[in-house]
UniProtKB/TrEMBL annotation:
GO terms for molecular function: acyltransferase activity, transferring groups other than amino-acyl groups. This is Uncharacterized protein. It comes from Thelonectria olida.
Length: 501
């Protein structure tokens, strides 16, 4: 009966466009099929009692400054494309931010769920995943996808603050079509400045009206056509498409059916543990480097990617070729964007691909880390970045600029690294501290700064598998990761953490 009611129920009517609203476009890396399905939730944990109204008013004030106003707009659809409509003036009836505040007259450790929010221990550890704490960000009317926002005259950003007697949870929700993790970093930094009365120091928003990713490759190239001097995408021959993509999809679906659901958990790695991993990886990389005198450079990110990949591979029942998909942000690689003195409030993440043979996938930590670094450097030259963007333009004709490289029988490992976004250290809410919640030698973060944060999309995707997010470095240089793995891989990872003790 429920299915019948849904079938014959009248479709909701999109909210009316309001005359006088300022219209901002969404760009080629924003308005994608994937991002339309993703409402992002973020909860920032503070071991202080914060003034909720100060946080709300300062965020609202920020969204009145220049093109920061874009973040206070409403999602609308025009000729099949999404765009942002911003009221000329924000009012109580049409605010910049949807705000709710919940006050609980208990300490955070007295709450049956909040008491389990991860805290940094002294040793490597597994801790609960973010979905355990949904209640602090999700309510009955929280939008699940960007389509839900089409039928309301509601702001894109929701702010929900939960106050305990000794702690505060500050949660944000917005559609992924709006911006990425680097956009969040810019938001947190600017929000902190306004909170401190330093509005004059807020950086201007760059590229709010034009797609800077496309403009960086030039007008002709932005049309998807290459000048004669331009390079082709060097990994194009490894594209998985057509019947090979169908085969990959069938194999992936069969593995989901056979292996069952994955679990998402948080991983804590102390700075010393990562330092030891990196030292081991550098020594192993020397053994496979092209020059015996060469000390190859590999980053913490390369080492963590290799470590995670080895764990996944070791949990598989048979050898397979492996593709590591690593998200990277054009802000740090495309010269024209690196030179900016402002901030970009949009999505600017694309991907590199590292290809491992079955033998190399079971090789040393250092050899995998070095291969990952080499693939990153080869695929992020300026000509190759332009080739990537031309491919994106061509694929975006149907609103779906996503593509996959590797082999149809590959094991796909996905890694996202937010360490450069410095999310845990970007918000300084010191001026909003009413009283400290944690004091003494156990405290490991400055007043008004995060002790932890967690993230999850509103809409769960059963297809998510073998995914690692390097969430953050904390104030002492320790790493927080998030992983989505099969139980057998978690068993391997638990043994690995025990070996680090």
């Amino acid at each position: 009966m429920d299915a019948a009611r849904k079938l014959f129920r009248a479709k909701p009517t999109p909210a009316l466009k309001v005359d006088g609203d300022d219209v901002y476009p969404l760009f080629v890396l924003d308005d994608t099929k994937l991002y339309r399905e993703l409402m992002l939730t973020w909860t920032f944990c503070f071991n202080d009692v914060l003034d909720a109204e100060k946080l709300h008013s300062s965020l609202s004030k920020l969204l009145e400054i220049g093109d920061w106003r874009k973040l206070g707009g409403r999602v609308r659809k025009n000729n099949g494309k999404f765009e942002i409509h911003v009221p000329p003036t924000f009012t109580p009836q049409r605010p910049a931010v949807a705000f709710t505040h919940h006050v609980l007259d208990i300490s955070i450790d007295e709450h049956p769920v909040a008491k389990s929010i991860p805290k940094a221990p002294q040793q490597p550890s597994l801790q609960p995943g973010p979905h355990v704490f949904r209640e602090f960000v999700v309510s009955s009317d929280t939008p699940v996808t960007v389509f839900d926002l089409l039928y309301r005259d509601s702001p894109q950003i929701s702010l929900r603050i939960t106050s305990f007697t000794d702690a505060s949870l500050v949660s944000l929700v917005w559609p992924h079509t709006l911006m990425d993790a680097l956009g969040l970093q810019a938001l947190l930094e600017a929000w902190s400045l306004v909170l401190a009365g330093r509005e004059s120091e807020v950086l201007a928003v760059v590229g709010a009206r034009e797609d800077v990713a496309l403009m960086s490759v030039g007008p002709r190239r932005a049309s998807g056509k290459a000048d004669e001097a331009e390079e082709d995408l060097k990994i194009a021959h490894k594209r998985v498409q057509g019947v090979w993509l169908i085969l990959f999809g069938l194999r992936f679906l069969w593995s989901l059916f056979w292996d069952g659901p994955c679990e998402t958990r948080s991983i804590y790695l102390p700075r010393e543990a990562v330092t030891r991993l990196r030292g081991r990886a550098v020594e192993e990389a020397k053994a496979v480097a092209s020059s015996a005198d060469e000390t190859p450079f590999i980053s913490d990110g390369d080492v963590l990617t290799a470590w995670f990949t080895k764990l996944v591979v070791s949990s598989e029942p048979r050898q397979r070729p492996v593709t590591i998909l690593c998200a990277f942000n054009l802000r740090f690689w495309m010269k024209s964007l690196m030179q900016s003195t402002g901030v970009y409030l949009q999505n600017l993440a694309v991907a590199t691909f590292t290809f491992l043979s079955p033998v190399l996938a079971e090789g040393s930590l250092g050899s995998i880390a070095l291969t990952n670094r080499q693939n990153l450097l080869e695929q992020t030259t300026q000509p190759q970045l332009r080739a990537i963007m031309r491919t994106v333009v061509n694929e975006s004709q149907d609103g779906n600029p996503t593509f996959l490289f590797g082999q149809s029988n590959m094991l796909l490992v996905i890694v996202t690294n937010w360490e450069k976004a410095k999310i845990m250290t970007s918000a300084d809410f010191g001026p909003a501290v009413i009283r400290p919640g944690e004091t003494g030698a156990t405290r490991r973060n400055p007043p008004g700064m995060m002790s932890y944060f967690y993230y999850f999309p509103m809409k769960e995707n059963m297809m998510t598998k073998n995914v690692m997010v390097v969430s953050a470095k904390d104030h002492e240089g320790n790493y927080w990761l998030s992983g989505t793995l099969l139980p057998r891989a978690w068993a391997k990872l638990r043994l690995e953490l025990e070996a680090m003790l």
